[in-house]
């Protein structure tokens, strides 16, 4: 396997033949995500090989399709869930309570109590009030403290909303102890779509400083949750999955030593490349005869699954039945009556000049954060259908 992925990855080259064949041989009345569970299994195997002794906790929010959960459970995965509903979906897929982590730092008290009664014993925290809620509703539970990291090179940073400032980490660990909880470790997130393993180094340095300070203060930390950030291919070079994970683990080992338990929470890196969306062109137009670019409107937009085009952060790749024709730049937009429903304008997309209403457009690497971001019916457009093969 090559050290870098610059064109189609190994996962893509095989999965897209399956998903494209499926889309080309089926009719869809509305936008549909086709997800290949065999590709999910291959990606899990690659990441597991590189991560070694780290336990994979699939980030369910990326795509909670029951077929994916059952596939990963059968391969030995554990799960990171953000809500009672996600936890129940994992249990329904066969997971045991001790294979689940309630990883959202913003939880309803009744959901904490339900999880505790169900046997789930591992919770994320990042604030005093959350510690109080868990102590009241899940007495004696294990908790890990999520901390804020800075200077991430991720294409989709995840700073500020989640995590405690590093300056108050030790005080929160001490508070958890005083409230009868068992603070077992730390967690962080380098940011979604961190394309190269080397980008983890400065983030790990920040976390390691807190880890060693806590241990020096007498806190027996045994769990390091390295979160997600494992990338998918959207047109820019990324490290191949097994080598990426292996390099991350080397960086962890250098800074933390032999941590007894390491968790990793890949979401996008497990399922993105395994999915492709079948969509349709609704309209091609120019606003004036002098416009440089066409507008191409699809039957799917930011409110029906493609929310990660916000700020044009995630650059999806497109396939059409006219790809042998001459191409030209276009502004790509969704179908809703909302002016914000524009996918790519700052960096126009190259699509065939002959594209017309009714033409099929297939969107690659859509297995993550599309079905879960789709609205229930903004403007009356239906939510994204999901088909697992």
Task: Give your account of this protein's structure.
- The protein has 389 residues and is α/β, with parallel strands linked by helices.
- It folds into 2 domains: 38-271, Alanine racemase (TIM Barrel), CATH 3.20.20; 273-388, Lyase, Ornithine Decarboxylase, Chain A, domain 1 (Beta Barrel), CATH 2.40.37.10.
- It is built from 10 helices and 18 strands.
- The strands form 3 sheets. Strands 2, 12, 13, 14, 15, 16, 17 and 18 form an 8-stranded mixed β-sheet that branches. An 8-stranded parallel β-sheet has the order 5-4-3-11-9-8-7-6.
- Strand 12 and strand 13 (294-298) form a beta hairpin.
- Helix 1 (10-24) packs antiparallel against helix 2 (37-51).
- The chain is elongated, with a radius of gyration of 22 Å.
- Residues 6-12 have low confidence and may be disordered.
In brief, what are we looking at here?
It contains 10 helices and 18 strands.
Give the number of domains: 2
Largest sheet: 8 strands, mixed
Give the N-to-C terminal Cα separation: 26 Å
Structural class: alpha/beta
- Low-pLDDT parts are 6-12
Helical residues, percent: 25-40%
CATH class of the largest domain: Alpha Beta
The CATH topology annotation of the largest domain reads as TIM Barrel
Q: Which value, in Å, is the CA radius of gyration?
A: 22 Å
Task: Note the run of SSEs as H and E.
Answer: EHEHEHEHEHEHEHEHEEHEHEEEEEEE
Oligomerization status of the protein chains? single chain
CATH superfamily of the largest domain: Alanine racemase
């Amino acid at each position: 396997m090559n050290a870098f992925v610059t064109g189609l990855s190994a996962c893509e080259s095989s999965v897209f033949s399956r998903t494209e064949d499926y889309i080309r041989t089926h009719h869809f009345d509305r936008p549909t995500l086709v997800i290949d569970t065999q590709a999910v299994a291959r990606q899990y195997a690659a990441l597991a090989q590189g991560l070694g002794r780290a336990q994979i906790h699939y980030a369910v929010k990326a795509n909670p399709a029951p077929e994916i959960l059952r596939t990963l459970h059968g391969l030995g995965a554990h799960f990171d869930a953000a809500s009672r509903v996600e936890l129940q979906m994992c249990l329904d897929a066969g997971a045991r309570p001790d294979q689940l982590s309630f990883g959202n730092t913003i939880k309803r008290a009744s959901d904490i109590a339900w999880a505790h009664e169900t046997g789930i014993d591992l919770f994320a925290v990042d604030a005093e009030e959350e510690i109080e809620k868990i102590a009241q509703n899940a007495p004696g539970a294990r908790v890990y403290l999520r901390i804020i990291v800075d200077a991430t090179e991720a294409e989709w940073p995840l700073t500020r909303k989640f995590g405690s400032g590093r300056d108050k980490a030790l005080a929160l660990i001490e508070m958890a102890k005083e409230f009868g909880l068992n603070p077992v470790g730390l967690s962080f997130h380098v940011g979604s779509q961190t394309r190269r393993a080397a980008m983890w180094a400065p983030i790990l340095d920040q976390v390691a400083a807190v880890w060693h300070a806590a241990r020096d203060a007498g806190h027996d930390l045994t769990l390091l949750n390295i979160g997600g950030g494992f990338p998918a291919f959207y047109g820019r070079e990324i490290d191949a999955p097994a080598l990426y994970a292996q390099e991350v683990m080397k960086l962890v080992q250098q800074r933390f030593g032999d941590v007894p338990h390491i968790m990793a929470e890949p979401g996008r890196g497990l399922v993105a490349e395994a999915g492709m969306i079948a969509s349709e062109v609704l309209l091609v137009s120019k606003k004036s005869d002098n416009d440089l670019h066409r507008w191409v409107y699809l039957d799917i937009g930011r409110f029906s699954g493609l929310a990660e085009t916000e700020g044009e952060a995630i650059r999806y790749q497109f396939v059409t039945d006219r790809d042998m024709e001459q191409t030209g730049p276009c502004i790509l937009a969704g179908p809703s009556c909302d002016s914000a429903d524009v996918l790519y304008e700052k960096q126009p997309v190259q699509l065939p000049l002959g594209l017309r209403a009714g033409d099929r457009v297939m969107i690659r690497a859509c297995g993550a954060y599309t079905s879960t971001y789709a609205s229930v019916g903004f403007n009356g457009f239906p939510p994204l259908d999901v088909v697992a093969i």
